[in-house]
Every structure is written in structure tokens, then in C-alpha cells.
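Support request, please re-run this one:
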Amino acid sequence: MLFLRPRHVKQGREMAKDARKMLAYKRDIWPAEDVAQFEEGIRKLEAANRTGSKDAIESAALELDRLAGKHAGAGGHSAMKEHCEVILVAIAVALGVRTYFLQPFTIPTGSMQPTLNGIIGYKTSEPPPNVAVRLFQKLAWGRTWINVVAESDDVITEVRESKTLGIFSSTLLVGRNQTYRVMCPQETLFRYLMPPLREFKAGDVIARGYFETGDHVFVDMASYHFRKPSRGEVFVFNTKDIPTRDNRNSLMQGPSQFFIKRLAGIPGDTLQIMPPRLLVNGQTAEGPEFAKVMSAQNGYRGYSNESEGQPDAQGRAPRYRMNLLGAPKETFHLDSKTEGAAENNYFALGDNSFLSSDSRDWGPVPEKNLVGRGILVYWPFTRHWGLIR
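Re-run finished. Output below.
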């Protein structure tokens, strides 16, 4: 019976079993001569185990241990190989998760504010804080401080955006006497941080304040393979073959981008916007996601038939009628497969309706373009951190 076997026999059998596993793992790496030698050592130990002789088992075990030590390093740099294998496996797992389950995504614009922040800026009257505070704010909140002061009387004659190290966006303010490089995207700089003036005296503040990076979110790429998208969800889609402003200007040959919006209409819905309300099938859209936008409170402005352009020097922003739902009486019906459409279509709206290029501008999103739903803001650690509502 097993529990009556001597301890040295049990240990001998365990060692032979482990040696067999090691050989199976190393067989395709070791030279044939080493494989044969190691197999012979295992057979000797197994034969000694059958005799039950303690001396024979110990002798065979010592010989097999010597062979294991001798061959463990065969093929050179085994430790380095093992480390590389672990790293490669970790990379493969991470790529698999990114490809099939979770994908990180950065909110680039303000179309979903205040639900999700794009790159936004804030003017300040005081100079930036010290280096330690700025570093903490950069790591925790994604905040970058700007402080550009005119060194002489000057007039800005040209503005152009450039890349530092091919990665970081910056804006060049070209004056008659000097050029200023501001580490900030041009649109963010003009919209939030610069006064409308372009003429400065020595010591005048050209731009002062800070801007914060867009929210970084995780997108669930698996759910839509098992269920249909639900009205009210924040979802991500690509713009391939969708006539967005970039694609329109290049005859549909522009690069495919990822957009994130609120899913306002599903196949079969009829939509209408009577500011600040969104109507779905003749009724006010239901759910807390739509209610907070239609409340026109806490930073929300309600749904609109228009969009706002860039403000002029006096801060006045022109308004443009949208192509779809451009008036309170207009409706739009989303065709579905059951109604003869080639595929299901979805209607995307930004929570920041006045500053959102969405389905009102370029039409519905085909089902083939869906990527997944936004589920979590993982950075920066601001009030948006956590599950997306």
C-alpha cells in the first residue's frame, strides 16, 4: 500500500517523476547525446526504486542530480532565456487583452464634456506654482502649466503648430522680434489660454494658465460580440467610410479615427431634438444619462439643432445649423435590417451638443464600425476617475 512505502522510495519516485518533466521540457533544446545520458540516469533511478534498496536509490538519485546540474545550463544563458520567455508571454497576454477585450482610448476633444473631458485649459492671473507642485499635478491630474510673457514690444504675425521630438504638440507664436514656442496644442491655446489681442508690450502676458489632458478610458471590446448596443451607453466607433469632416475633405480617403459619443438612437428609432430635449419615438429620452444633459445644469447645455464655431476676437461664437435634426420639427429614422437596410445603424450624440461633431453632422454609425463601450476612466485621477456614467 502507498502509505506503507518507505520514505526513500517515495522520494526516489518523486525525483524520477520530476526528472521526466524536466526532460520533456528540455528534449528539443539539449543535444541528442545529453538526452540519452539523462534518460539512462532516469531508468537507473526507476530500477533502484523497484528494488527498494535505500543505498541503490540514493546512489542513482545523486547521479541523476549531477546530470541535471550538468545539463541544466546546456544551450547557454538559460536564465536569460527564461526571463525573455516570461517577458514575451506577458507581452503576448497584454496584446491579446488589448486586441480582444480592453483597449485604452484618450478623449481628444470637448464633445463629451462635462461627462468626459477632452483637452481643456484654464486662464490664471498668478504665475505657475513651484516645480514640485507642477510635477505632482502632471502625474496625478495630467495638468501642464503655461506661462509666456512678452520679452519686448511685439506683434504676433504668424501662428503654426509643430511637433517636438515628433510626439509633443506645441504652438509657435511668430512675432516681428521674437518667436515663442508654447507647449500646448494650437486649438487649446487659442480657445482657453490666450487673449484675443495679438499685439503685446514688454512684460505683457501672452498666455498664462494650465491645460489638462483628455480623460484616458478603457473600452470594453467584447460585449458587443454577445449583445446589441443599448441606448444611453457611451460607445466608441471608427470613422471608416463615414463622411466626417476629415473624410469629407479628402473624398472619403482620410485616415480612420476613433470617436467616442453617447449612443442616442438604436435601429428602428425615430429621433427629434426640441432644445434642450431629445425625443425618441415621440417621447422625451428616458434614463439618467439623457436627463443630466437635458437639465442644462452643472455644465450641461442640453441638446441643440446647431453647433458653435470658433469664437471671434470679441468672444462671439457663430452658430451653424446641423445637417440632420437641424430644426425642432425635423425627425430622423434609423433603418434596421428588419426594414430592409443592409445593416443596423446607430445615432451618436455628444453630451456637449453645441461643440460636438456627431451624427447630426455626418449621419448614423453603421454596425460594422462599432468598437465597444467606454467603461472606465483610469487616468487622470480627477472627479471623472472610475466608471463612466
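The radius of gyration is 33 Å. Residues 122 and 210 are 6 Å apart (CA to CA).
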